[in-house]
Design goal:
binds calcium ion; 4 helices; alpha+beta
Length: 199
Amino acid sequence: MTSTARRSVGVFLLCALLSGPAASGCGSFGDYARDRAWDALDMVRIQGLAGVGLDVNGELTHFFGIGGGAFHAWAAGIGTRRIGVWHELCLDFDVPFAIVLSEKRTIDGDEPDRRNEFNLYDLLDQKEHPYSATENNKLQWLSARICVFAFVGIDAELRVGEALDFVVGIFGLDPAKDDKAGAPREGDNAWGSDTKSQA
Ligand SMILES: [Ca+2]
């Protein structure tokens, strides 16, 4: 079993429990329950880490942060629509007062699976794209993250925008536009290179 498959097993079992019985008798309720389960999982990322590197970093939204570092580590916990164990490379660079904020994260691949970068100078110079990200909706901007790593560590993120998506999702709304998206499949960019957002 590949690492991608392993980390999806827990999520798959959760969704199978929710959608399996319902799907046979009422497919739409099965879809609804599965999407609520994914939305709930989107609200936090929390990972225990063990590997090589140093990182101390705090971020409030994708625009304000302090600290930085880099690590290459095994991660265990909750990622984006995945539960399990995976190998992760993370590069952080946050200068106070939002001069530069950058995060690049690779999970089992060469290209960054997840990236967001903001440069205040580019904004002040009115350059075309002071912010860019691989994640595809502005709800991603509302988050609080802390990472402390020195060969072992923890990386935790409360995703306020995704919590909002979960709450209104109960009533059938989908501001994150991620319902029916399901889990990242083998070989997929989990966040979709074709959904790059720029602002
Ligand atoms: Ca949703």
